[in-house]
Amino acid sequence: MTGIQAIERKAFDLPLRPGKVQRREFEYIRHGTQSLIANFDVVTGQSVTPTCGDSRTEADFVSHIQQTVESDTDATKWHFIVDCLNTHQSESLVRFVAQFEGQEIDLGIKGESGILKSMKTRATFLSNPSHHIVFHYTPKHSSWLNQIEIWFSILVRKLLKRASFTSKEDLKTRLLAFIDYFNRTMAKPFKWTYKGKVLTV
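^ that's the sequence the OP posted. Answer follows.
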């Protein structure tokens, strides 16, 4: 989740009155943005090993995946459902997975040959079901298939929508605190309600 704004309201919200909703100050000060890289465990309903920082580069994503894998040394298989973003099919990610798998093979040259040649060849390698770390890519324009998107909508409604943050550090602290609170008190597996019926207009 990129571009989460650390917005501070210039004045306090007006207090509630009988029959009236709380009125929010519309002027604000921008303090920058943060990017949240998070995982949603579909079995427990928890957000695990979140990473919050100034960017979401190739290196940021690989570091996040490495941190996630290292968080449970007993796990024998990892399945990550991701969209088709270029950082999810990067050279660094291929190199990390190949190293994790113990594969000492020639990966080729990015843009020229081998597994590293293109995003398509890298995605094919990363989605190999025989690996211990397997990436599953949602089709384009189908991010709703990934349950983390449902969790992001909860984050927006419960924390971000009406909040005021004094700095990027304040935003980061409160994001991570919310995730901890969510995991302790609200986490549960999501139950899909869509039955696969064709939508009618």
